[in-house]
Specification:
heterotrimer, A alpha/beta, B mainly alpha, C mainly alpha, A: alpha/beta, Rossmann fold, seven-stranded mixed beta sheet, 13 helices, 16 strands, 42% helix, 23% strand, globular, B: mainly alpha, ABC transporter involved in vitamin B12 uptake, BtuC, 11 helices
Chain lengths: 399, 293, 342
């Protein structure tokens, strides 16, 4: 087995070619403003990615239709470059590198779920490129590091954790005040299910009779459910992503466990949850940060545009991504330049109401979205709390 | 870790054993491929999920109950798998072990991609009322769908076992798996036997997939998990032994269930894998398999 | 194994290698020189290429190193392992912990390699009882078990993972580090292939029982190859951690690593020394070209794997070598073929 000198040379030349090919990477760069995003377009989170893609693109299209952004003394169109990170944080990291080094993005938008968002955010911060992101609960985002160039607009885990209790209190329902908790050990699952729920349950006068956790991609929950059932708790709190939430709900029914209150954070939010479960989804409560009925500018129109263009049912994630992109574009316009520091400062000065509500960043680069509680009724979500936003009454008991 | 009470433990045992039936059906195809053709069929998980998607389509488009739909799904999978094997895998026989392994791996990649294209990445489930109801078995409540799956498993495993042991086709399969050279000399068309075995295995995988869709949820990437479960079942029960697959399935179901009850559901898969690895190291031929040469 | 028997004139492994060992010191000096020249050339790159080229090269070099390790194990040793992710993950976590306790990156990477090698050593007595496809399944199960454990275990940051507090190296720094790792991996593998160890490795691959009877101690041979491959993969894992600055169990122990490495070596050419190099270039380049269309990327990758397995079992390297007649893989350099090859 021999390797000739020429073979090594061939490979060296090939590497140089492959790398040299990417050297320029500028395509009409000076007449356009380039913003980039690495989002999960394939892999388990592809559902989120498709909403993000629409939201980001919609905001960019609107800006371009209005004539672009004024930078310097000219108006320039915005070009959005989207790369697929295949739900793999390693890919998010290298994609973000690429967006900066090859596509010369002036600013970035984030991916979805903490592990992906953080992977890209770390690169953005390191390279001093401003990034606005949603889809990352604030505590999980803040706990990584002190961000300089990355800004997060999303809900705060404590609010999410407290919402079910407030809803039950507001509806004045009577239960046996026993709570069973089941949560995944992802970043926000561990925080919401592992720490916040037990603490809040006590504060609201409930007793936590069971608290169990499982890995994010677990497929069977029989013991978890039979343990919870054995406690006889009337309130069952679940924190899991959609595939797991669907399975848990099915296995609850198979096990004959029918608590009066079922909360399924994260997982019960998308419409696939109801589609997969049919009637079983009814009564399940989930926190949401946006509904098209909210009294924010452009909310209803956003939903209509989405459903008209894609013929699919909308999700709250179109609003979060749309708003994130708008915040970024507004900041570029306010800065009047593609200079990173100026854009970054402009993001920091944001103080405006967007389709998701009022946005203003605190000194930890986060802006909190208020939580509402939604409940599945007849295949649709109704806002059941807070009262000012209600579109339906709480269905109790759930099952 | 906590010791569950007696009632919970027995319930876990019973439901685990029944769940094992589902495991057995999903693993049978893998067992056949490994035992008869020495093929590590890395696309097996995708064949299982293909069955689930087919069941879903039949239910949502035609309103066909998935259990009835099994009669459509099984032949459909076989029809897909047969040409796949003949065209892509058969020509690689005798060219070493990596080639077919890597081909099936390439197919798995394409398969997952195809699912994403056709069905998007959404989580899906086959929702039927009988699939989400409990059933009482001697005072212990277990998911009805587990009992149903076990019944289906008995039928499937029993039929395949009879096929292999009692029919002419089965004789050819056994001959080809014991000694392909001798079988060929005796006039057996090894290629056709292999392709047929592969198709049979795919049909079983499809049946398993429908059961998975009824009992749980699935998405394009769910297949990989069933590939690993399949390996565990096969090793526990014995390569190439049809009845062994049933035993292996039940064994795995029980081990995982009890492990989950004691250590928490998160460690279920981990414990299953540890036991599997132990078996692999100490008794790789499984409970019913022949000792490997 | 397919590769050896495909070539005319090659007898069983041991004799085949003895035949290809001809050429001696002259050849050795030639390839050492070629490698050094290539490395020197590539090391100059950061001064005239941009960040993007260096980042892409980083990935190419990472996969080249990983590919060399896996190729030694699977291509030459016949031990088709689907457990690469385990060693990479161990490397990532070890480096993260060490650098967070003050160790600089490079020593951290080396220690991570040792940790991965130690893990390999620990599991080898059980793993090596398995032959052929059992071994493959066993490695897959092992890597999965480790991943499941890490995902469940709350000690090392749990699902949130670990943030590397020390500043990441610059793009050029990462480029040179990865170039060094790839060059070292290639050089070391070439070195190993020239020793008597290779004879025993190949003999073990071709027929383990005979090899054992001939007195070549197969356990030690397999152990060396397995541990060495694990070491290299652990080092690369450490490098990846240094680049990411934030690691968590799904990305560190994910099956994607294993899948990618197999793809790289297979497309480049199994059991060829240049295979991992060219496979890495091709795979990374393809991923870059198709980064905007994931469906196409997946479909093409799957199709290429199937086609290569069927039509070009020695991969791109084999095709290139045949096309250029620069010395077929596995054959000694001989005088020009009298039948007219250039």
């Amino acid at each position: 087995m021999r390797i000739g000198a020429r073979q090594v040379a061939v490979v060296a030349v090939l590497v140089l070619l492959a790398t040299g090919c990417g050297k320029d990477g500028t395509s009409a760069a000076d007449s356009e403003i380039v913003i980039g995003a690495s989002i999960p377009l394939s892999g388990p989170l592809a559902g989120f990615g498709s909403f993000q893609r629409w939201g980001y693109q919609h905001a960019v299209d609107q800006v371009n239709q209005a004539g672009g952004l004024r930078v310097g003394d000219s108006r320039r169109n915005v070009r959005l470059i989207l790369l697929d990170d295949k739900t793999d944080p390693n890919t998010t990291s290298s994609n973000t590198d690429t967006l900066i080094s090859r596509n010369k993005a002036a600013a970035l938008l984030g991916s979805c779920t903490p592990s992906l968002v953080v992977a890209g955010a770390v690169v953005a911060d390191r390279n001093r490129v401003p990034m606005v992101t949603g889809c990352a609960p604030l505590q999980a985002f803040k706990s990584v590091k002190r961000w300089q160039y990355v800004w997060d607009v999303f809900f705060d885990e404590p609010d999410l954790a407290e919402a079910p209790f407030k809803t039950l209190q507001g509806a004045g329902v009577r239960t046996n005040n026993k709570v069973a908790i089941v949560h995944d050990n992802g970043p926000d699952g561990a925080v919401v299910g592992g720490q916040l729920w037990p603490m809040l349950a006590e504060r609201y006068g409930y007793t936590v009779v069971s608290k169990q956790s499982f890995p994010v991609d677990n497929t069977q929950f029989n013991s978890l459910i039979s343990n919870a059932k054995a406690t006889g708790a009337d309130v069952f709190l679940i924190d899991a992503v959609t595939p797991q939430a669907v399975t848990i709900r099915k296995q609850m029914a198979s096990a004959g466990y029918n608590p009066q209150v079922i909360v399924a954070e994260k997982g019960a939010e998308p419409v696939q949850f109801a589609q997969a479960l049919g009637n079983l989804a009814d009564g399940v409560i989930v926190g949401g940060y946006w509904d098209s009925s909210f009294p924010y500018p452009g909310a209803a129109q956003l939903r209509q545009a989405f459903e008209r263009e894609t013929k699919q049912t909308y999700s709250q994630h179109i609003a979060d991504s749309y708003a994130a992109a708008q915040i970024l574009l507004d900041a570029i316009g306010a800065a009047g330049s593609t200079d990173a520091t100026k854009i970054n400062d402009a993001i920091g000065r944001t103080d405006k109401t967007y389709v998701v509500g009022p946005v203003k960043f605190d000194d930890q680069h986060t802006s909190k979205l208020p939580i509402a509680e939604l409940q599945w009724q007849g295949g649709q979500t109704k806002v059941v709390w807070p009262n000012e936003r209600k579109t339906g009454n709480l269905l109790f008991p759930a099952s | 870790m906590h010791l569950p009470g007696g009632h919970t433990l027995v319930t876990a045992l019973v439901s685990g054993a029944l769940l094992g039936g589902l495991f057995a059906v999903t693993a049978l195809g893998l067992s056949l491929a490994l035992g008869v053709m020495r093929l590590i069929n890395l696309v097996h998980g995708e064949l299982v999920i293909l069955g689930a998607y087919l069941g879903y389509v039949l239910l949502s488009e035609l309103g066909l109950d998935p259990l009835v739909g099994l009669l459509v799904v099984a032949p459909a999978l076989a029809l897909v798998a047969y040409p796949l094997h003949r065209g892509l895998l058969l020509p690689l026989v005798g060219k070493g072990q990596e080639a077919p392994l890597l081909t099936t791996f390439g197919l798995a990649v394409i398969g997952q991609n195809l699912f994403i294209q056709l069905f998007h990445a959404d989580t899906r489930s086959l929702s039927r009322s009988y699939a989400t109801a409990p059933i009482g078995l001697g005072g212990y409540e277990v998911p009805a769908i587990y009992a149903i799956s076990f019944a289906v498993a008995l039928v499937v495993v029993g039929s395949v076992h009879l096929l292999v042991q009692r029919t002419g086709v089965g004789r050819e399969i056994r001959a080809a798996s014991e000694d392909p050279g001798a079988a060929a000399v005796l006039g057996v068309d090894i290629g056709r036997v292999y392709a047929r075995t592969y198709a049979l295995g795919a049909a079983c995988a499809g049946v398993g997939g429908v059961l998975v869709g009824l009992a749980f949820a699935f998405m394009p990437t769910t297949g990989t998990g069933y590939l690993l479960t399949g390996f565990a079942v096969v090793v526990l029960g014995g390569l190439g032994s049809v009845l062994g697959t049933l035993i292996g399935g039940i064994g795995l179901g029980v081990i995982e269930s009890v492990g989950g009850a004691v250590f928490g559901d998160g460690y279920r898969d981990f414990i299953g894998l540890v036991v599997f690895l132990a078996f692999l190291a100490l008794r790789p031929q499984g409970v019913l398999g022949r000792a490997e040469r | 194994m397919s590769v050896d028997t495909a070539r005319p004139g090659a007898t069983t492994g041991a004799a085949g290698i003895a035949a290809s060992g001809r050429g001696g010191r002259g050849a050795r000096v030639r390839w050492a020189g070629a490698l050094l020249a290539a490395v020197a050339l590539l090391a100059l790159a950061p001064s005239y290429t941009g960040d993007y080229a260096q980042q892409v090269s980083f990935r190419i070099f990472e996969y080249a190193a990983l590919g060399q390790a896996w190729n030694l194990l699977a291509g030459y040793g016949g031990m088709v392992s689907l457990g690469s992710a385990a060693f990479i993950g161990i490397g990532e976590y070890t480096t993260a912990e060490l650098t967070n306790h003050g160790m600089p990156l490079v020593p951290g990477m080396l220690v991570s390699g040792l940790f991965a090698a130690a893990f390999a050593t620990a599991v080898s007595p059980a793993l090596f009882r398995l032959r052929g496809l059992y071994f493959t399944i066993g490695t897959l199960a092992l890597a999965e078990a480790l991943r499941l454990f890490m995902v469940n275990y709350n000690g090392l940051g749990g699902n949130i993972g670990i943030f590397l507090k020390s500043a990441a190296p610059t793009t050029a720094g990462l480029y040179w580090l990865s170039l060094g790792v790839a060059a070292a991996a290639t050089g070391l593998v070439l070195l190993v292939l020239r020793t008597r160890l290779t004879i025993s490795l190949r003999a073990v691959r071709d027929d383990e029982d005979v090899a054992r009877q001939m007195g070549l101690v197969s356990f030690r041979t397999k152990l060396f190859a397995f541990t060495f491959a694990a070491f290299l993969m652990g080092v690369v894992g450490g490098l990846q951690a240094g680049k990411l600055s934030q690691i968590e169990p799904y990305g560190a122990f994910g099956l994607q690593w294993t899948v990618d490495i197999v793809t790289v070596v297979l497309i480049g050419g199994l059991a060829t020394t240049g295979g991992p190099l060219i496979g890495a270039v091709f795979t990374v380049a393809l991923a870059e070209l198709l980064s905007g269309s994931p469906e196409l990327h997946l479909a093409i990758t799957g199709a290429i794997v199937i086609v290569v397995v069927r039509l070009a079992p020695q991969g791109l390297w084999g095709l290139l070598s045949r096309a250029g007649q620069w010395g077929r893989p596995g054959r000694a350099r001989r005088r020009p073929d009298p039948e007219g090859a250039p």
